[in-house]
């Protein structure tokens, strides 16, 4: 924990001078600090996971414009290509960005980019994924170990409810090995599952790719046998969709419980129809808007205090770690719909209507 707190509501504190941080100064943005319009750059890693283009980008940009109507926003999506992201970030530095918000494709490879920004006195915020082995201004993400624990516990609960705990093996589909968050999800899941289930096959899935997850699941079914697999720990919803496709193709009449993360629309619908057991709902609005608040504050030469610190191998990074929420069918109404993440009408369209009615969503 940090040594001092600023007793101001967080949303306000992020845009008010005087709430100092005990972290090192990257120099602060220059555009806003000199009275001119600041330039804030946002770089996201990929588009296969629907959240980035559907939620993170518009929510971040909307909040920046709300706080700073004259601010210019530079945006880039790397499409899971670290080289492309390097060009995007270097381009923003050349264009005179005052602040860079970076969700790195490869957290280790991103360190030289952060150093380039620091040499120009451009503060950097690591968004969603912890950038390792370099110092920077802030890290904004979720409690990723807790995410894995929630997934593991949900799978144990489902296996117990079905009476299949200890009667077969599970398959684990972890996230991209280039994403430090994946290691945290895996760590949390193993903390819950180890000693309580047999892990028949475990994979790290490059690029968080649903297609590659489908291939891995097909390999597991071939190696273990269809009737041996009683559950699937999938680190996110996209990969869960790939695993479900593999199981349907293999002729499963009843799907074993499978976890997910991100509350993708298709996953929420699968939970309602019984194809997926749960997802982890991340309040992306809070994450995107918190990051935008910080970016605008940095552009104005401010450096708000953060409630936590996370060590990235080189430095203790001031951090905002938001709480995840495990969502099963009975919790969709009071979380995803209540927060306006998706309206009930969008979730309940088409063939999902009957399941929504049964769940009390219509």
Automatic annotation (TrEMBL):
One of its GO terms (cellular component) is outer membrane-bounded periplasmic space. Pfam families: Peripla_BP_4. The keyword Signal applies. It is found in: Cell envelope. GO terms for molecular function: carbohydrate binding. This is Sugar ABC transporter substrate-binding protein. Keywords: Signal. Its main location: other. The keyword Kinase does not apply. InterPro entries: Bact_Solute-Bind_Prot2, Peripla_BP_I, SBP_2_dom. Residues 40-303 form the Periplasmic binding protein domain.
């Amino acid at each position: 924990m940090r040594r001092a707190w600023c007793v101001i509501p967080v949303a306000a504190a992020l845009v008010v001078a005087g709430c100092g941080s005990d972290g090192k100064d990257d120099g602060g943005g220059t555009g806003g600090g000199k009275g001119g319009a600041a330039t804030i750059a946002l770089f996201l890693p990929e588009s296969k996971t629907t959240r980035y283009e559907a939620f993170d980008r518009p929510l971040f940009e909307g909040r920046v414009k709300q706080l700073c109507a004259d601010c210019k926003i530079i945006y880039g999506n790397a499409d899971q290509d670290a080289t492309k992201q390097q060009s995007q970030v270097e381009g923003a530095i050349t264009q005179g960005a005052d602040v860079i918000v970076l969700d790195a494709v490869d957290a280790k490879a991103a360190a030289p980019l952060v150093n380039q920004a620091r040499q120009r006195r451009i503060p950097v915020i690591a968004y969603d994924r912890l950038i390792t082995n370099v110092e920077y201004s802030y890290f904004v993400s979720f409690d990723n170990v807790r995410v894995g624990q929630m997934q593991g516990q949900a799978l144990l609960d489902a296996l117990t409810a079905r009476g299949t705990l200890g009667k077969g093996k599970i398959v684990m589909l972890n996230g991209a090995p280039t994403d430090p968050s994946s290691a945290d999800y895996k760590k949390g899941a193993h903390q819950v599952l180890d000693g309580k289930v047999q892990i028949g096959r475990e994979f790290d899935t490059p690029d968080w790719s649903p297609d590659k997850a489908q291939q891995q699941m097909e390999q597991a079914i071939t190696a273990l046998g269809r009737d041996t697999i009683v559950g699937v720990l999938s680190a996110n919803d996209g990969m869960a969709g790939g695993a479900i496709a593999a199981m349907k193709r293999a002729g499963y009449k009843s799907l074993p419980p499978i976890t997910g993360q991100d509350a993708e629309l298709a996953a929420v619908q699968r939970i309602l129809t019984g194809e997926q057991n749960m997802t982890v709902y991340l309040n992306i609005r809070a994450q995107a808007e918190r990051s935008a608040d910080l970016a605008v504050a940095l552009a104005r030469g401010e450096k708000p205090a953060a409630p936590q610190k996370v060590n990235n191998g080189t430095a203790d990074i001031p951090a905002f770690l938001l709480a995840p929420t495990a969502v099963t069918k009975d919790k969709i109404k009071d979380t995803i719909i209540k927060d306006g993440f998706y309206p009930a009408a969008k979730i309940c369209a088409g063939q999902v209507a009957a399941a929504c009615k049964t769940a009390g969503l219509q």
